[in-house]
Write a structure and sequence with these properties.
Number of strands: 17
Shape: globular
Number of domains: 6
Mean pLDDT: 83
Largest sheet: 7 strands, parallel
CATH superfamily of the largest domain: P-loop containing nucleotide triphosphate hydrolases
CATH class of the largest domain: Alpha Beta
Strand content: 5-15%
Helix content: 40-55%
Radius of gyration: 32 Å
CATH topology of the largest domain: Rossmann fold
Oligomer: single chain
Length: 753
């Protein structure tokens, strides 16, 4: 504390001026110290936004609440005061992977590894002993702790005996069930902090609606906290919603067009992350999956490979990315829609954290929303209603023709003029058709006013459009004179009008009452003096449907070319002494006769054609196709086919890796809950899709060489690889079906690739 003493002889008129000057010098000194620490520890010359004021608040011992968008520098707000304050700061963090990432980042700035440590269930006894020794020695300035670890009495007792500079609650939105990553353990943080001692508290989040903010303040008992709230606008991010049609083809094409750029793809399920990552790898894109079901070591490796740019794309569930410190993620793609706008904002916020390019693409299908709602069917009623409301908000934003940025910011309580979007969303870059409305808006607002209680967006729009819902029937509103008064305009129109009314603050959505609509002071003003508003049409995503992974192709099969390809296959097979099906199977020829591959690179994109097969057999086929295309003046399809893995089974990635490690097929099956026969079927699919496997290690230990040679020779001379035909032509009593399957896989892998 600095004490200012003013000489009593000083003229009273000048006393206040001197005090003000002295306080200014003290403040300048504090700012100088913080800037020096910023340069020495973190290598930056200046603070961003409100960072300096936030850090001063913490250093003064004030409870502090920080709402700051991803990429604006939240972490520095507690890292710098932790470094310069006496004692150890505790940072409560929700994810083990996040802690490791942040600890590694802090250690990179410092020459002392012990300056940052984490305390969680992943530590061995020896590692826990080392962490405690570093805290005892005063080396550790930042101790990252999971709430599950902090609640343990032994840890509370340990921390109580040390000087704690402050406690930081990172990702504080986890406290609220209205937040997108609700964690019940976060509800107990205030009690845990009290057990440690009377220390300042700082809560930080990148996404918090007014409801979530109030929950955080109430639960952490931070009613006197200083609030620092930055704009949620990320001007460098481009937001786009696409219909979920041929989504995988679209994703592959986008990544190929942006080769070498880092990106994250989010899906709803663990299985889909593995399937999609496998398809990307089949199309020569360096990609790996990330989800909570992976072994810990593999999960950490995949994340580290992404951070170190060993791979370009990570396909993940929402378990990935919270607080990840990778500034140059250039795109974030949602294969499935997120469960809330908070989730969407948080996940897209991982793009362009360096202020440069960030593209955010989401594929929308209302059936995904139905899946999300089904996931919640076993949850308590209140939690289910909250979840459904959050999903409805996402659907509304996706279907709307209004500025995406304006809708996102409005959701977080921030006004935004859509002219400032600078065409950084699909709706501003390619506007939907609009129409001017006035009488319709008056009708809508009068309808909301006419009800004795508040109803939801869905209820009002369906009431005006004259469409029955269980709620309308329950209240008997279909018998009211206003029911269906706007039927000729349709449901989509009234939904669009309601969105405009909300953005114009003519209506207010009461989140605490599950999204019911209420009038505002502006409602009465508008009804007294109505003016024209422009309402853009909604997108009609319901008109487009996608198949699972393999997109529906509308291109026509060229029968004349197919006949030529079959003749070439027959000739080549005769020259090489192989059955025609070994050269290329019929599905491969049919796809060639549809997509017209004229280079070996394009040939590798055909189903069942890997790099080996393309090099081995492809040249005469692409030459024939190139001549045919030129002679017949054919325009090739603009979108080339995406190479499939030949499977939707997430088991295949595992099986290929296990074979590389020479694990017996029976053990592979046991570890995945598959029968031996099912493993063989998966292997046949792997080989048919163009991947070569070496099963000699297993065949040599399980089959006699004579059996292998006889079955192998049969397939060399056969016209087909059909199993039943083989079983009939071979001496059925001498060979089992499984033996024939196994040798067939060996034959196809060796001869066809």
């Amino acid at each position: 504390m600095v004490v200012l003493e003013i000489d009593p002889a000083v003229n009273p008129e000048h006393k206040n001026t001197l005090i003000s000057m002295a306080e200014g010098l003290v403040q300048e000194s504090v700012s100088h110290q913080l800037r020096r620490a910023l340069r020495e520890f973190f290598g930056f010359d200046r603070f961003k936004g409100q960072q300096e004021a936030i850090i001063e608040s913490i250093c003064e011992g004030q409870d502090t609440f920080v709402i700051m968008p991803t990429g604006a520098g939240k972490s520095l707000c507690y890292q710098l005061p932790a470094v310069i304050s006496p004692g150890t700061a505790i940072i409560i963090s929700p994810l083990i992977a996040l802690m490791k990432n942040q600890v590694d980042a802090v250690r990179a700035f410092s020459g002392t590894d012990g300056i940052a440590e984490f305390l969680n269930s992943s530590l061995t006894k020896a590692e826990l002993k080392r962490v405690r020794a570093n805290v005892d020695a005063g080396i550790t300035k930042m101790l990252y702790v999971a709430p599950e670890s902090l609640v343990k009495q032994e840890n509370l007792d340990f921390l109580h005996d040390h000087q704690i500079s402050f406690v930081a609650v990172d990702e504080a939105h986890c406290i609220s069930e209205w937040g997108h990553d609700f964690r019940p353990e976060y509800r107990n943080i205030r009690q845990m902090v009290k057990a440690i001692g009377d220390v300042p508290l700082i809560a930080l989040t990148a996404t918090a609606t007014e409801k979530v903010q109030n929950d955080i303040i109430k639960n952490l008992q931070m009613t006197n906290a200083r609030l620092f709230k930055s704009s949620f606008n990320r001007p460098n991010l481009f937001y786009e919603m696409r219909p979920k049609v041929d989504a995988v083809k679209s994703i592959v094409r986008y990544i190929k067009e942006n080769a070498g750029k880092s990106g994250i793809i989010y899906t709803l399920s663990r299985k889909k992350t593995e399937e999609l990552a496998e398809i990307l790898r089949a199309n020569d894109i360096k990609a790996v999956p990330y989800h909570a079901g992976l072994e810990s070591a593999q999960r950490v490796k995949n994340q580290d490979d992404f951070l170190m740019e060993e791979i370009d794309v990570i396909v993940a569930t929402i378990a990935f990315g919270m607080g990840i410190d990778k500034p140059d993620v250039r795109f974030v793609i949602h294969y499935d829609i997120p469960k809330s706008i908070e989730s969407y904002y948080q996940e897209t916020g991982r793009a362009g954290r360096d202020g440069l390019e960030g593209v955010c693409i989401a594929y929308y299908d209302e059936r995904d929303a139905e899946k999300l709602q089904k996931f919640m069917k076993d949850k308590p009623v209140a939690e289910r209603e909250v979840g459904n409301l959050l999903i409805q908000e996402v659907m509304s934003m996706a279907e709307s023709g209004l500025c995406r940025r304006q809708q996102i910011l409005h959701y977080f309580g921030e006004s935004f003029d859509d002219t400032n979007c600078n065409k950084m969303c699909d709706n501003c870059r390619n506007p939907q058709p609009t129409e001017q409305v006035r009488d319709e808006m008056v009708l809508l607002l009068q309808t909301v006013q006419s009800f004795q209680k508040a109803f939801t967006y869905k209820h009002i729009s369906h009431f005006l459009a004259g469409e029955m819902t269980p709620e309308i029937e329950a209240y008997g509103h279909q018998r009211l004179p206003g029911f269906g008064v706007g039927k000729e305009r349709g449901l989509s129109f009234w939904k669009a009008c309601l969105r405009v009314a909300l953005l114009q603050n003519l209506l207010h959505k009461d989140i605490e009452q599950y999204g019911t609509l209420r009038t505002t002071p502006k409602t009465a003003e508008y009804l007294q003096d109505p003016f024209t508003l422009r309402v853009p049409q909604d997108h009609r995503f319901d008109m487009a449907r996608d198949s699972e992974f393999e997109g529906q192709r509308s291109e026509a099969l060229d029968q004349a070319l197919l006949d030529l390809l079959r003749d070439l296959r027959k000739k080549l097979a005769k020259d090489k002494g192989l059955p025609p099906y070994v050269i290329f199977q019929d599905p491969s020829l049919e796809e060639m006769a549809t997509m017209y591959p004229t280079t070996l690179a394009e040939m590798q994109q055909i189903v069942g054609v890997g790099p080996g097969k393309a090099l081995k057999f492809g040249k005469p086929f692409v030459e024939l196709i190139a001549r045919y295309v030129e002679e017949n003046d054919i325009e090739k399809p603009e979108d080339f086919v995406v190479k499939s893995t030949g499977a939707k089974s997430g088991n295949r990635v595992f099986i290929i890796g296990a074979i590389d490690r020479k694990i017996p097929l029976t053990e592979i099956g046991n570890s995945r809950g598959l029968t031996y026969d099912q493993v063989l079927d998966e292997l046949k699919g792997i080989v048919d899709s163009g991947t070569k496997v070496n099963l000699d290690y297993f065949i040599q230990s399980s089959l006699d060489q004579e059996i292998v040679e006889e079955i192998y020779q049969y397939f060399r001379q056969a016209d087909t690889d059909d199993l039943q035909v083989a079983y009939k032509n071979l001496l059925a009593g001498d060979f089992t079906e499984e033996e024939i399957k196994l040798v067939r896989i060996k034959f196809l892998s060796e001869q066809a690739h």
